[in-house]
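Training component of the fellowship. As part of building independent skills, the fellow (R.M.) carried out the full modelling exercise for a liganded target. The chosen ligand was flavin-adenine dinucleotide. The inputs are recorded below so that the supervisory panel can assess the work.
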Amino acid sequence: MHIQDILLATQRPLVSLEFFPPRSPEAVKTLQDTLNQLAPLNPDFVSVTYGAGGGTRELTRGLVAELRQSDVFDPIPHLTCVGHTESQIHSLLEIYAAAGVSNLLALRGDLPVGTASNSGDFQQAADLVRFIRRFNERGLHPDPRGFGIGVACFPEGHPATPNRMLEMDHLKAKIDAGADYLCTQVFFDNHDFHDFRDRCELAGIRAPILAGILPLTTASGMRRMAELAGGTRFPARLLRALQRAGEDAEAFRRIALHHSTEQCLDLLDHEVTGLHFYTLNQATPTLSVLRTLGIHRHPQV
Ligand SMILES: Cc1cc2nc3c(=O)[nH]c(=O)nc-3n(C[C@H](O)[C@H](O)[C@H](O)COP(=O)(O)OP(=O)(O)OC[C@H]3O[C@@H](n4cnc5c(N)ncnc54)[C@H](O)[C@@H]3O)c2cc1C
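Fellow's submitted model of the complex:
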């Protein structure tokens, strides 16, 4: 379903889930179990990540095709443009259009480690958004509106642009180029989200913003995410609670999930458009948060 229709039809808040394509038979099995457990939630959509530079191009396409065929989930593929030619992106758009994919998350991506410069045809995500819009305008998608387009945003700021005012100009350029909605990077302090949303409004960015939630469960996962997300900030309140838990892994899990739940409750109080869960292909943490919030959509969950 086109994102504009999802936004109109859904009960607030919209709930979406993110998965990454599995790379081993064990990981395939884990994801299958996770999908089975999460299916009764009836999420508004699920999104599938894409390795920057096309590293998981085939895997992403494969998982998106499977999800489409299952008829249970409505998949939104992530698409990064760094290192890609226009012709490669055009082919992917044709494949997704033919497969009945309604929306894409248009990203720049990061150059693979050790690669000095971007040899592709796209410099920024805004270039990709413009390219998709041209594809849409040529009537190459079965939906006359073409693909719905999401873009990334960073409540804590993107590391490449320390000038936060300039960063908002870059974000607005993505919306002006044709993006329909924003999805945030993971954040753990809602002040960052609220302030970001206010700054969007001041910058004239009116697109709906989905809040990226990562229900953490382990200290190692926390360290990994801090590195991956390019400097995620954990609020002192959470760090203090985790410090009190010491080496107790079960206490860590409870505290971290409590924190995610509190974050969601506060976001709901502030009329967030949607909660986007970074599941890391695990069902239990997301289920646990949604159960406590009472916004699951199926009696068996
Ligand atoms: C929700 C979400 C999902 C993601 N999924 C994936 C994924 O599946 N695969 C993956 O590899 N990565 C993914 N990422 C990470 C993302 O690709 C990186 O963070 C990347 O560094 C930025 O991508 P972007 O689309 O925000 O790029 P852009 O919007 O192009 O911004 C990148 C940087 O360039 C700056 N910039 C933009 N325009 C200009 C300009 N005209 N001049 C100068 N500077 C400019 C911006 O301010 C920013 O600092 C995801 C991130 C988020 C938030």
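The panel noted the following from the submitted structure. Strands lie at 14-19, 45-48, 75-80, 103-107, 148-153, 181-184, 209-213, 274-278. The CA atoms of residues 81 and 89 lie 7 Å apart.
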